[in-house]
Amino acid sequence: MLAQLALLLMLVESVAGLRWTAPADWKNQGSTSMRAATYAVAPNTECVVYFFGEGQGGSVDANIERWKGQFKTTDGRPAPAQIAKRTSHGLTITTIDTSGEYSGMGGPMSAGAAVVSGYRLLGAIVQGPHGNVFIKFTGPAKAVSANQAKFEQLIASFQPAG
After folding, report:
1. Inter-CA distances, 146 with 3, 91, 105, 108, 152, Å
2. Domain boundaries, the chain
3. Which residues, listed in sequence order, are joined to residue 136 by a DSSP beta bridge?
4. pLDDT digits (tens, 9 = 90+) for 7-18
5. For range 3-30, the mean pLDDT
């Protein structure tokens, strides 16, 4: 029991006045100046938790629109996206679910990003006390779908850090 508690405490992450618990088999690959956590989930599939700083990173709507714009249908039209809002632990969370040809492989600032077919994005923006936290789970649609319940578990775990 003590070992399980110690393992759970190691999985708790925090940024921007928020804390969360990653699924047990999602190992954090580390952080950078903008990435609070990067979880390698399956081959070519990752879930990244971004925090750019208080008041930074753009609005919720602007980010949802940018993420939507990274996906097209095979005939080049914008891919359908499901957008929803919810409240969990007193926090407002906006989510997106879309799939198709993904052009975000090189990151938002890269020119001429590679386009890959059959990708899916599950995304969430958690409005925290010290700024927005952006969670972007991308990869082949089959791998993302297989881990959708774990993504939902991650999002549901976000709560104020103190």
Report:
1. 28, 26, 20, 26, 12
2. 2-160
3. 48, 123
4. 444 456 889 999
5. 74
Report which DSSP code applies to 23: -
User: Mapped to the 3 state alphabet, what secondary structure does 61-83 carry?
Assistant: HHHHHHHHHCEECCCCCECCEEE
| Bridge partners, 123 (sequence order) | 96, 136
Distance of CA 100 to the CA centre of its chain: 17
Distance CA 36, CA 86 (A): 22
Query: Rounded to the nearest 10 degrees, how much is the dihedral formed by the CA atoms of 60, 64, 65, 66?
Result: 100
At 55 the three-state DSSP class reads coil
Which CATH number applies to 2-160: 2.30.42.10, 3.40.1000.10, 3.30.70.260, 3.90.1640.10? 3.40.1000.10
